[in-house]
Specification:
alpha/beta; Rossmann fold; eight-stranded mixed β-sheet; 8 strands; 17% strand; globular; binds nicotinamide-adenine-dinucleotide
Length: 251
């Protein structure tokens, strides 16, 4: 039986682990051909091999690398700008008396360059090719932390709110070109990003941590609905839904 993505090609950053690897597995099961892009060559090659796809080493923070990656091969129906990190290993609040006092310049630079630069450079690199073909869908893995507060890691919240704003705004820009962009905004998902201490926070914050296969369901929902600039939320105990921002000036 043909899958929903038969004949399509997908490119996934951060595809070596967690949510990216799950999207690789799900898209492949739906009939797509997958390119896994990551800095973890060992895991990335394993995931790519497991889905009969290919692996490319790509550091998403490098504008030069992005300039080169789509020069020869840019015929992608789906590009997932998914690679991302948290500021701290353990997301359970800062033990120091003053918020942000543990944040070093290097930590801030690291998370900003991966979570923000990595998405902006990727979108800039693929959009001209998608616009030329008047087709394609970019999925940005933001987070529920791009919609609601995440007190223990405000910098993570900053980067993910930035992604939601980017997707909402770019959606309007891309609409006349036949290209779609959507944000995936899951709550806690069972991946290596979520440390044991973060799991304790997750239990108090929500109904817990979702199994990783929810990431495939979330991505497939965003792809099938194809609503430009949309945000797709899910959290333990709650179904997948489109989050609709209320315009304060709408009558
Ligand atoms: N796990 C969660 O609870 C959760 C919830 C909401 C959103 N997210 C987001 O989902 C995305 C994926 O996270 P995950 O939970 O699967 O984490 P993960 O740690 O399992 O995977 C992240 C992947 O990104 C890769 N990566 C890191 N820096 C990179 C770089 N400079 N260039 C290329 N690849 C790089 C890592 O090697 C890894 O394979 C992130 O953007 C994260 O913020 C995660």
């Amino acid at each position: 039986m043909a899958g929903q993505l038969t004949g399509q090609r997908a490119f996934i950053t951060g595809g070596a682990s967690g949510i990216g690897a799950e999207m690789a597995r799900r898209f492949s099961a739906e009939g797509a051909t997958v390119v896994v892009a990551d800095v973890n060559d060992t895991l990335g090659k394993e995931v790519a091999a497991s889905v009969s796809g290919t692996y490319v080493h790509l550091d998403v923070t490098s504008a030069t690398a992005w300039d080169e990656v789509f020069v020869k091969d840019n015929n992608f129906d789906i590009v997932c700008l998914n690679a991302g990190v948290s500021t701290y290993t353990n997301v359970v609040g800062d033990p120091e008396p003053f918020p942000l006092s543990r944040l070093t310049n290097d930590m801030f630079e690291r998370i900003s360059s991966i979570n923000i630069d990595g998405v902006v450079f990727g979108a800039r690199a693929i959009i001209p090719h998608m616009c030329n073909r008047k087709s394609g869908h970019i999925l940005v893995t933001a987070s529920l932390a791009g919609i609601i507060p995440i007190g223990p890691d405000p910098i993570y919240g900053l980067t993910k709110h930035a992604m939601v704003g980017f997707v909402k705004s770019l959606g309007q820009t891309l609409e006349p070109h036949g290209v779609c962009i959507s944000a995936l905004c899951p709550g806690f998902v069972d991946t290596p990003l979520v440390s044991p201490l973060a799991r304790i926070f997750a239990e108090s914050f929500s109904l817990g941590v979702l199994p990783v296969d929810i990431a495939g369901d979330l991505a497939m929902r965003a792809l099938s609905e194809r609503i430009n600039g949309s945000q797709w939320v899910v959290s333990a105990g709650f179904p997948i839904a489109q989050y609709e921002h209320k315009d304060p000036f709408a009558g």
